[in-house]
Write a structure and sequence with these properties.
With 317 residues, this protein is an alpha/beta fold. It is built from 14 helices and eight strands.
Length: 317
C-alpha cells in the first residue's frame, strides 16, 4: 500500500505487484498473455494518473524515496569516481558528495546533494540538508576543477540548507553567498541538473550554471509549499494551494525562462525506472558538455552573466 500522501499511486502499485508475482512463477512464459494485458493496463493507467497530477502531487513525486540520488547517477553514468571529503576548514558534510570522475571518458568534477534511503543513512546525510562545511567542500572541488580545467556537474536535490543553530554559528548564509559568487566566476563549464527537490538557498548555492536542467517531476523554489502555506496562511494544510500559486514545477520554470530545459522521466517517474532516468540524464549531460567544452573562459563568463541577469524580467500591461 502507498503511504497516504502517495495515494494517487495505489492502483499502479497493485498492478506492479501482480506483474512481479506472475514474472516470478517458474512457468512465467505460460502467463504471457495475462502479463501483456497487465503491462498494457499499467502503462495506460500510469499515463492517466501522471497526466493529471497537481503541482502538489508533482512535489510529492520529486520527494519520492525511491528516486535516484546523486550517488546513483554517479554509479550509473561516471567511471573512476574518487570522492573527496572535508572543507579544509571544519570538517566533512555527508549531505553533499563531491569528487572527480570520468564521463564518457573525459574527466569532470561532480558535486551533489545526497539523501539517505535507510533511517541510519538519512540521519547520516541529514536528510539532504547541508551545513556550511558541505558548501565549502563543494566549492573546494569546484576550485580544483577550475585549476585543472575540468567541467563541473552539479546534481541538486535538497529540501534546503540546514537551519540548525550549529550551521548558523558556522556561517551558513556566508557559505551560500560565497558559493553563488564563486560559481558565477568559474572559468570552466558548469552543468546543473535538479533531480528532485530544489529548495531555496540550499539549492541555489550549487545552482549557478551555464546550463540548468530539471527532471520532469522535479521542483525548484524559494521555499517549500508547506513553508509558504505556514507563512501566508498559518496553515500547512493549504500546501496544495501554495504549490499552485508558486509555479514550482519544471514546465512552469521552463515557461518562465528560469531553466534551460526539461529532462524527460520514464513513465511513472524516475522511481519507476531509475536506470532509464539515469540514461536520460546522461544524454542531457553529454549534449550540454558538447556545447560548452572548448569555449573560452571569457565567453563562458559573458554568457553566464547574461543568462542570470535576464531572469526575473517581466512586462507590465
Amino acid at each position: 500500500m502507498a503511504s497516504p500522501e502517495y495515494s494517487f499511486e495505489e492502483p499502479l502499485i497493485e498492478l506492479r505487484r501482480r506483474i512481479e508475482e506472475l514474472e516470478g512463477y517458474p512457468d512465467a512464459a505460460g502467463q504471457s498473455k495475462e502479463l501483456r494485458e497487465l503491462k498494457a493496463s499499467l502503462a495506460r493507467q500510469t499515463q492517466e494518473v501522471y497526466g493529471r497530477l497537481s503541482r502538489w502531487q508533482k512535489a510529492l513525486v520529486s520527494r519520492h524515496p525511491e528516486r535516484p540520488y546523486t550517488l546513483d547517477y554517479i554509479e550509473n553514468l561516471f567511471e573512476d569516481w574518487v570522492e573527496l571529503h572535508g572543507d579544509r576548514l571544519f570538517g566533512d558534510d555527508p549531505a553533499i558528495v563531491a569528487g572527480l570522475a570520468r564521463f564518457r571518458g573525459a574527466p569532470v568534477a561532480v558535486i551533489g546533494h545526497q539523501k539517505g534511503r535507510s533511517t541510519k543513512a538519512r540521519i547520516l546525510r541529514n536528510f539532504g540538508q547541508p551545513r556550511p562545511e558541505g558548501y565549502r567542500k563543494a566549492l573546494r572541488v569546484m576550485r580544483l576543477a577550475e585549476k585543472f580545467r575540468l567541467p563541473v556537474v552539479s546534481f541538486i536535490d535538497t529540501p534546503g540548507a540546514y537551519p540548525g543553530i550549529d550551521a548558523e554559528a558556522r556561517g551558513q548564509a556566508e557559505a551560500i553567498a560565497r558559493n553563488l559568487k564563486e560559481m558565477a566566476a568559474l572559468e570552466v563549464p558548469v552543468v546543473v541538473i535538479v533531480t528532485g527537490e530544489g529548495g531555496s538557498g540550499g539549492a541555489l548555492a550549487m545552482g549557478v550554471g551555464d546550463r540548468v536542467y530539471m527532471l520532469e517531476y522535479a521542483i525548484y523554489s524559494v521555499i517549500s509549499p508547506e513553508g509558504c502555506a505556514a507563512i501566508l496562511w498559518k496553515d500547512q494544510d493549504r500546501r496544495g494551494e501554495a504549490a499552485e500559486a508558486m509555479r514550482l514545477t519544471a514546465p512552469d520554470l521552463a515557461e518562465l525562462g528560469v531553466i534551460d530545459g526539461i529532462v524527460p522521466e520514464p513513465l511513472g517517474g524516475a522511481h519507476a525506472d531509475p536506470a532509464e532516468a539515469c540514461r536520460q540524464v546522461g544524454r542531457t549531460l553529454e549534449r550540454c558538455l558538447a556545447e560548452l567544452v572548448g569555449k573560452k573562459p571569457e565567453e563562458l563568463l559573458a554568457q553566464r552573466y547574461r543568462k542570470f541577469r535576464s531572469l526575473g524580467a517581466f512586462l507590465e500591461s
